[in-house]
Amino acid sequence: MVSRMAKGSPAVSEATYFILASLLDGPLHGHGIIKRTLDLSESRVKLPVGTLYGALDRLAANGLIAVDREEVVDGRPRRYFRLTDHGHDVVSAEALRMQQAASVVTGRLLRPGSAFA
Amino acid sequence: MTAALERPAATGAGGTSLERRYRRLLLCYPRRYRVEHGGEIIATLLDTAEPGRALPPLREARALVSGGLRARIVAAASDRPAWLDGLHLGVTALCAVQLATLVPYTASVPIWTGLSALALLLVIRGRVRLALPVVALVASKVFAITLGRPWLDPTLLPVDAPPVWHTGALYGGGGPVAPMAGYGLAVLGLLVLAAHRHRLGRRSWLWLPVVPLLAGADPAGLDFGRGGDALDVVRTGLELGLLLFAARAGHVARDPRWAVAAAVHLVPVCVVHAENLGVHSEPDIAHLAALLLATALAAAAPYRARRHPAL
């Protein structure tokens, strides 16, 4: 799924959408984002670590996420990422766009007389 | 993250062999990136690894290689002005091709081959002001050879290579304009680079293995005009591969520096084709069409990525 929100707006891939969605409830570190993304997508989006950090770099460079804090747990370094206001706007707009797109189909499927009604 | 955090992390899931293999894969990333984030990535990889696993899963290995290349491209695009760095890259490619051309004739023109090698090393190191007179000197000699004049030293013309190379006389495959255009462009590019105040970076030493791969190619003649052989196909494949990489890199970094380098490379190639108009074989025309297409892709990729950004 690579979709366009509006003309000139950046296309949001499915992986990016779920990464941003995973941060809606608060900051997470890399492993936390992978687990949350897997849960939210019902095991459909399983991010390889190299892909995840590439996406995090890109999202941070575009101002959609930011590093919230850094910690060392059991000798392992961790960065916690949080959604910025811009990131919040982008994921909200994308969700609304998909909802509207879905309603085009579901509205017809659930109409009286439809085979799915 | 600090350099201290790049120390081997505690291995919870897969033991040290898995961590060691992941660290090898991390070499795909630029050194600075590894220092800043390598420890964190290794920790996340080990956190997500299946217990008892010793080999990285293929999808993780592929993602690390791809992520590393992407990080290198982004890092390369963030240092210097795009046009300047692209010109430096293009001149480096020209110098590599020019040295490769002379390599089979080293026994006949050892000084000029040596000077050409020195020029390539200086350009790779970013020492363009030192490289400029060296390239200009070699260019003068090349002009002399292509015009059949014994300038600068008493070189016996035509300049032949030992039979093992299966090549004709130096610059014997075409007219004098194409080699002159290539050297003229290299000198002009170095003049522009030398006149600019920005300090140039060092290019990769991986340009050196390109020289033996291209050795024996005649920049004055068409690649397939004399029938072509397996090496010509390898050279063409390498050339197209680099141009497609230029398009990919331009798209990833949304940066035109690789397109500038591709355009610099294309100029002398077009001159060769113009000078040999009428004697093109079908593979030559296909080669030129592929080069034009790949260069156009490299030029369009950064602008398309800017107009249609993806997250």
Could you characterize the architecture of this molecule?
The complex is a heterodimer of chains A (117) and B (311). Chain A is an alpha+beta fold. In chain A, 50% of the residues lie in helices and 20% in strands. Chain A is built from four helices and four strands. Chain A has a two-stranded antiparallel ribbon with strand order 1-2. In chain A, a hairpin with a 6-residue loop joins β1 and β2 (11-13). In chain A, α1 (14-22) packs across α2 (30-40). The longest helix of chain A has 25 residues, at 85-109. Chain A is elongated and about 60 Å long. Residues 1-6 of chain A have low confidence and may be disordered. By secondary structure, chain B is mainly alpha-helical. Chain B has two domains: 3-75, no CATH class; 82-307, no CATH class. Chain B contains eleven helices and no strands. In chain B, α4 runs antiparallel to α5, α4 packs antiparallel against α7 and α7 (177-195) packs antiparallel against α10. The longest helix of chain B is centred in the C-terminal third of the chain and has 26 residues, at 282-307. Chain B starts with 14 loop residues before the first helix and ends with a helix. Mean pLDDT of chain B is 84; it is low at 1-14. Classes of the chains: A alpha+beta (117), B mainly alpha (311).
Rough outline of chain B: elongated
Any idea of the CATH class of chain A?
A: Mainly Alpha
The second-level CATH architecture of chain A is Orthogonal Bundle
Question: What is the fold-level CATH name, i.e. the topology of chain A?
Answer: Arc Repressor Mutant, subunit A
Termini separation of chain A (Å)? 27 Å
Number of structural domains of chain A: 1
Determine the structural class of chain A based on helices, strands and strand pairing.
alpha+beta
Largest interface comes to: A-B, 31 and 32 residues
What is the number of beta strands of chain B? Answer: 0
Please estimate the helix content of chain B: 55-70%
Return the string of H and E elements of chain B: HHHHHHHHHHH
